[in-house]
Amino acid sequence: MLTSAGANAEIRYRIQKGAHDAFEVDAETGVVTVSGPLDFDRRSSYDIRLVAVDGGVPALSGTATLTVSVMNKNDKVPTFLPSTQRAHVSEDAPAGRVVLHLNATDADAAPVVVSKDEEGAEQRTGGLAFSLVQPVYAVDADGAPVRTDEFLSFFRLDEFTGELSVAPSSSSSSTASGRGALNRAAAAVITLTVAATDLSADPPQHGYGTAVITIVDVNDFPPEFAVS
Ligand SMILES: [Ca+2]
Ligand SMILES: [Ca+2]
Questions:
Q1: Is-contact 11 38, C-beta < 8 A?
Q2: Residue 109: nearest ligand to its CA?
Q3: 226 pLDDT higher than 90
Q4: How far is the CA of 125 from the centre of ligand 2 (A)?
């Protein structure tokens, strides 16, 4: 068995590469520690190359690679990008017309999985769930606040896709004319608070944004040309 005596026995450790400023090594003990917060969503694995050098002349060195796998924690909340999302829609838009496709991201939400149950109905897990929450408000075409929240019935929000679309009209005359539920006389500029929820987090994580929908006037009565 070979031994080193005196200065030769004083081994010094250092990190050669691969720590990306997330780890450090104690030069004397060789103990590797975490030096800052780790984030699986940015880097999930490290190959840290360690060098040990003794105090001899000439110095002898050895290297080893330490592989560290970072485990994910669901620590990111959903975020709307941008936080305020705007759209214009004509007041005569038909039911089902997509007004706005809400855009939110979450770095560590479970991936979307769509499957069919025994009866053939779609089951969906993962991703983000979209919803409308308070506060909501609207102004009329003159900019005056609207006192009722009747305008909430103008839209449908697809919980999974984030598509906000024109709802079917409850009035038979509107349905007959092919129009959806939009009624610019009741509310012209509508501000909705939207939520995106990561249900794969425990507890679920919520992010909030704002959707501003402007209902644009159309001429209900096409112009009649006077023939002279
Ligand atoms: Ca994470
Ligand atoms: Ca998350």
A1: no
A2: 2
A3: no
A4: 14
pTM over 0.70: yes
Q: What is the Å distance from ligand 2's center to 106 Cα?
A: 5
Q: Is 158 helix (H, G, I), strand (E, B) or coil?
A: coil
Spacing, Cα 6 to ligand 2 middle (Å): 54
Token look-up 């896709």 returns 161
CATH of the domain at 114: 2.60.40.60
CB 197 within 8 A of CB 131: yes
Tell me the pLDDT tens digit for each residue of 186-209: 999 999 999 999 999 999 999 999
102 within domain boundaries: yes
Using a 10 angstrom Cβ sphere, with 0-12 exposed, 13-18 middle and 19 or more buried, the burial of residue 145 is exposed
- The structure tokens listed for 207 are 């992010």
The answer to whether position 62 is within a domain reads yes
